[in-house]
Amino acid sequence: MGWYPDPGGSEKERYWDGSRWTRNLRAPREVAAPAARHDRQSGRPETLDPLRTQGTHKVVRRRSADDPQPTAPAPRRQEPYPGGQYPSERSREALTSDGVPLAGWWWRVLATIIDMALVWVVVAIVMHGQFSTFMTRYMNLATQNLGSYNAIIQAVSGDQQLLAASMAITRGTIIGQIVYQFAMLAICSASVGQLVCRLRVVEVDHGQEHRRLRWWRALLRAAVWGAVEFVSQATLGLLELFSYLMPLWQRRRQTIHDLVGGTQVIRLPRD
Predict the structure, then answer these.
(1) Rounded to whole angstroms, how far apart are CA atoms 35 and 4?
(2) Cα 116 vs. chain centroid, distance in angstroms?
(3) Could you give the CA distance from residue 221 to residue 180 in angstroms, rounded to a whole number?
(4) How far apart are CA 77 and CA 214, in angstroms?
(5) Is 83 inside any structural domain?
(6) 32 lies in a domain?
(7) CB under 8 Å to 140, separation ≥6 — which residues?
(8) Which of 130, 269, 255, 125 has the alpha carbon at shortest distance from 181?
């Protein structure tokens, strides 16, 4: 008879009356020395019959005092990245905050070339008279000053009719690009060149939402692009070049019109 660790699995002690386990429980008491092992002669059973829990028919296995205490398995350390490889700073910069890859610089260049070619074709058709005047005057001046590059430059700069046609074509092309970009971004969040290259223009850090761009954001982005182009006419194209090169070092790979418009360009993964 006496108090022993509860064979039912609790952290308390249960009383053994010499023939069976009672329902009396108590908190375990600290002892100075380990209790001596009991055998059959001490009145404690060598093996314990299963005890049915009160109110149910579930059979549980009783643990004896000599059974080792169960220990919880050590938690397995979960590596945050496969193989414990942490992404580099550059690889983290190549994603939006919601995990969509940003477009590479060369993909953007290719998309821009495609768009420029399309717009030039449309402008050439719409402004056929100016194109015809420009080409005719330029070819005549080039033929008259054949073999002298400086003479051609001087002749072109002094031909007011040719310069007027050139300015009209340039302005028409920029305005055409503004209208084209606004319409395409508002409808499908990408120009034709970007669709071909699987690029999409999205709001900053919202790469998952690439169905269409809000109309006012598309208009703002296109207008800023046009402003950069017009200013570049007075800076020999330096501002335009700077804007197009910005994604090479800018953290979010944005151009000037991306920064002002609050947009990024992503590249959709292959299905």
Answers:
(1) 10
(2) 28
(3) 12
(4) 44
(5) no
(6) no
(7) none
(8) 255
Strands (E), the chain: 2-5, 13-16, 21-26, 51-52, 59-60, 199-203, 263-267
Element (H, E) at 10: none
Q: Is there a domain that residue 114 lies in?
A: yes
Contacts 24+ apart (CB under 8 A), 129-136: 130/165, 130/168, 130/169, 130/172, 131/165, 131/169, 133/161, 133/162, 133/165, 134/162, 134/165, 134/166, 134/169
How is residue 168 written in tokens? Answer: 């009209």
**Domain that residue 113 falls in:** 104-267
Continuous segment of H or E residues that includes residue 220: helix 215-232
Nearest-10 crossing angle of helices 105-126, 128-144: 100
Here the tokens at position 228 are 């950069």
More confident residue, 114 or 74: 114
Examine the pLDDT at 45 and tell me if it is beyond 60.
Answer: no
Q: Which residues of 64-100 are buried (b: 16+ CB within 10 A; e: fewer)?
A: eeeeeeeeeeeeeeeeeeeeeeeeeeeeeebebeeeb
Residue 54 lies in a domain: no
Please report the pLDDT score of residue 145 as a whole number.
78
The tally of domains found in the chain comes to: 1
Residue 44 structure tokens: 């404690």
**What pLDDT digit, counting tens, does each position of 103-151 carry?**
999 999 999 999 999 999 999 999 999 999 989 888 888 888 776 778 7
29 — pLDDT class (breaks 50, 70, 90): confident
pTM flag (> 0.85): no
pLDDT band of 81, cuts 50, 70, 90? very low
